[in-house]
Amino acid sequence: MSTDSLLQPAPESIERRPVSVASRVLMGGPVVLATSSWRGRANIMPLAWHMPVSSEPALIAIALEQSRYSVDVLDHSEEFALNIPKRALLHHVQYLGSLSGEHIDKFEATQLGHFAASRVTAPLIEGCAAWIEAGVRHQIPFGDHVIYVAEVVAVHVDPASFSDRWLSNAGDDRPLVFLGGRFYSSLDREQEARMPRDLEAPERVLAERLEEELELTTEARERREELLGHLTDEVAKGNVVDVAELGTELDIDEVDRLDLTAGTMLGDPED
Fold first, then answer.
1. Is-contact 35 123, C-beta < 8 A?
2. Are 178 and 27 in contact (CB under 8 A)?
3. Measured between alpha carbons, how far is 33 from 161 in angstroms, rounded to an integer?
4. Which of 16, 152, 201, 238 reaches 20 to 30 Å from 109, CA-CA?
């Protein structure tokens, strides 16, 4: 990309927003219900800030606002489970986000069914599309959040929702996707990517430019050969040739290879 294109003004249709909007711009993945347990008391927290960070070992990360009650629970239990809710739990997800587990038993308040996890003490919630159990390995405070990096110890899925990927035609079994605020979505359809066609590929522009460069190179080479032929003819006739008038289209090595015994050469191609 040329620096000229980087200096072009932004299109007028683009709007500038506060930097706080960056987190919402990056949203669009499944919302999760993070469950944890400490001293026999379980908690649930809706969470949108989560991501995989390693395949081997399998590590994931979640970010929690430092004032959350769940931070205190995770600091002690050092384990949690991520429950990926289906569409039927839409209103429960939003409601759970308005409650604090410090003052109320969220399982009691929502009457959500749950069952035992296989590797952690945190309960798993019924009616979800998938479940991930994890043990905390690192706790890192950043800004107003705490990032927990955890090793995945067990994964469970509902095959009606997930095969080797999320199923977009699963109806109410599809996972909820958080858009921000009180708004959610779900997978609408899947599209299989293919290699771009000639008219779509960015490589086409590069190929065209290379072709233009080759054409220019060919034209320049033909021009040099024409000048060299003309110079040879003039020298053969015994005429005086002013090489300086030929400009920079010929270099001195090309001129030196000519037989100039019959004529006279003035100047130097590099002068």
1. yes
2. yes
3. 17
4. 152
**Can you tell me the distance from the alpha carbon of 169 to that of 159, in angstroms, rounded to the nearest whole number?**
12
What amino acid is encoded at 106 in this protein?
Answer: K
User: For residue 49, what pLDDT band results from cuts at 50, 70 and 90?
Assistant: very high
The neighbouring-strand residues paired with 185 are 177
Q: Which residue has the tokens 């035992």?
A: 116
Give the tokens for residue 203: 């490589």
Q: How far apart are CA 224 and CA 246, in angstroms?
A: 10
Contacts 24+ apart (CB under 8 A), 50-58: 50/82, 53/149, 57/151, 58/151, 58/152
Query: What span, in angstroms and rounded, lies between the C-alpha atoms of 194 and 200?
Result: 11
Cis peptide before 57 (omega within 30 of 0): yes
Tens of pLDDT along 199-229? 555 666 666 667 776 776 667 777 777 777 7
Cα–Cα distance measured from residue 138 to residue 150, given in angstroms and rounded to the nearest whole number: 7
**pTM (two decimals):** 0.69
